[in-house]
Amino acid sequence: MRGNSRSGDDSRAQAREWRPPFPLDLSGVLAPLRRGKGDPTWRSVGEGSAIWRVSSTPDGPMTMRLHRRDDGTVVAAAWGAGAQWALDGLPALLGADDDPSAFAAHHPLISDAVRRMPGIRLGSSRRVWDSLIPAVLEQKVTGVEARRSWRELCWRFGDLPPGPAPQGMRVPPTPAQIRAVPDWEWHRAGVDSARRRAILAAAAVAHRLEAAAELGGEAGRELLRKVPGIGVWTAAEIAQRVWGDPDAVSFGDFHIPTVVGWALVGRPLDDAGMLTVLAPYAPQRHRAVRYVELSGFRRPRFGPRYSPRDYRAM
Questions:
Q1: CA distance 243 to 38
Q2: Average pLDDT per run of 10 along the chain, which is 314 residues long?
Q3: Fewer CB atoms < 10 Å away: N or C end of the chain?
Q4: Terminus-to-terminus CA distance in the chain, angstroms?
Q5: What is the sign, positive or negative, of the torsion defined by CA atoms of 118, 124, 129, 132?
Q6: What are the boundaries of each domain within the chain?
Q7: In this predicted structure, what is the pLDDT of residue 306?
Q8: InterPro entries from the entry (predicted)?
Q9: What is the 3-state secondary structure (H, E, C) of 192-260?
Q10: 250 closest CA partner among 261, 271, 270, 236
Q11: How do beta strands 62-68 and 50-55 pair?
């Protein structure tokens, strides 16, 4: 089932203006939802002045265009069956449900990042499925590999977006579209059997998994982990984006413990060591990691980078 159709009346835009009562870095808050420069669900137009997002919603697909006026007001226009749902969730998307006030920086690097970036908050997309597929694709492979697979699945099986979306954008494939992807197309997209099984298992119960966004916290992550192939790392990556979980640390990541270790204690760490170092930040450990990532710190490099594998050639 290849996705190349449009549904509903795409021509009429719905609009909303919202002025956040806090400093807002629009691009910085939305950045975790972007999966690489070629992400078919995201475009930044006019040197970052306008951000286009395409996603699924409980009501159907939607396209949204966001930009920020000089007075701080965010102006959003949305098209498609899911336009109203998306506009209703605009404040949550931009971090209105996040409360960073209780966060205490216990390290100069993090304290400096907090001071320099007051507009960073944890946004909530409220949509599990759209974050689940790319998170599973990122399991145990390089970002280059995962992003290539995400692009190819969206381009081949995702529908054209509603409204005047920039050329090349696609709606993420629906659970039904994913279940209809033949085996050889998974191979062509560079997705190995383990990740394919996890995505297909999630697709079979996708409607139930959306409840994780309502549960939030550890309960939401636990619900996601009931799906075979979704572990602690994948559940955390989803939780960070879908309900802005401030404590969802991506344990099991290839890079994060090393970066956090060098940044905060001057040496590489494993997951157990990172758990100890981040303990003072609970229940906002992910927020601490986010500030480390945004601080500009770069760990020392002592060897070649991990080489991507091309599953299409296997």
A1: 24
A2: 57 94 96 95 84 97 97 97 98 97 96 97 98 97 95 97 97 98 96 97 98 98 98 98 98 95 96 98 98 90 52 49
A3: C
A4: 25
A5: positive
A6: 14-102, 128-242
A7: 46
A8: Alkylbase_DNA_Glycosylase/TA, DNA_glycosylase
A9: CHHHHHHHHHHHHCHHHHCHHHHHCHHHHHHHHCCCCCCCHHHHHHHHHHHCCCCCCCCCCCCCHHHHH
A10: 236
A11: antiparallel
Tell me the pairing of strands 74-79 and 62-68: antiparallel
d(CA 191, CA 56): 22
Q: Which CATH class is domain 128-242?
A: mainly alpha
| Helix (DSSP H) and strand (DSSP E) numbers for the chain | 16, 5
CA–CA dist 82, 92 (Å, integer): 16
Spatial CB neighbours of 49, under 8 Å, sequence gap ≥ 6: 67
What are the tens digits of pLDDT across the range 257-283? Answer: 999 999 999 999 999 999 999 999 999
Q: Do domains 14-102 and 128-242 have the same CATH topology?
A: no
What angle (nearest 5°) sits at the alpha carbon of residue 77, between those of residues 62 and 14?
80
pLDDT digits (tens, 9 = 90+) for 57-93: 999 999 999 999 999 999 999 999 999 999 999 999 9
- The count of C-alpha atoms lying within 13 angstroms of the C-alpha of 226, restricted to the half-sphere facing its C-beta, is 14
Q: Which residues contact 268 (CB under 8 A, 6 or more apart)?
A: 257, 258, 261, 262, 299
Please tell me the distance from the alpha carbon of residue 23 to that of residue 35, in angstroms, as a whole number: 25
CATH classification of 14-102, choosing from 1.10.730, 2.30.170, 3.30.420, 3.30.310? 3.30.310
CA dihedral 243, 282, 220, 147 (to 10 degrees): 60
AA identity, residue 304: P
Which residues have CB under 8 Å from 203's CB, separation 6+?
175, 176, 178, 179
Helix (H, G, I), strand (E, B) or coil at 12: coil
